[in-house]
Amino acid sequence: MIRAAAAAGKRLTVKQATRYVPLVGQAISALIGYAAIRYLGEQHIRDCVEVCRQAHLQLPPPAAPAKTGRRASASG
């Protein structure tokens, strides 16, 4: 009786878990894609900075971080 209950419980758990496999796969795929694009973007920026330095071009100063929050419009 205990073995039958354990087997039924195992089948139920596997059925429930298979519902989430596609979602987990998509999440992992999205994370890998984000990491790859971010790495390539940062590498491109580093390459651009190196080209500017080799060409003795003046780089603009780093931008200040954007403030979060809305400003009231002047027209308003």
Give a structural overview:
This protein has 76 residues and is mostly helical. It is 70% helix and 0% strand. The chain is built from one helix and no strands. It has one helix at 2-54. The radius of gyration is 26 Å and the shape is elongated. The mean pLDDT is 81.
Feature tags:
76 residues, mainly alpha, single chain
Task: Tell me the layout of helices and strands.
Elements: H1 2-54
Quick overview of this protein structure:
The chain has one helix at 2-54. With 76 residues, it is an all-alpha fold.
Shape, principal axes of CA atoms: elongated
Main sheet specs: none
Order of helices and strands: H
β-sheet strand percentage = under 5%
Q: Radius of gyration, Cα only, in angstroms?
A: 26 Å
**Overall average pLDDT:** 81
Give the fraction of residues assigned to helices.
55-70%
Structural class: mainly alpha
What is the CA-CA span between the terminal residues? 75 Å
Q: Unreliable stretches, pLDDT < 50, 5 or more residues?
A: none
**What is the tally of helical segments?**
1
Q: Would you report the number of β strands?
A: 0
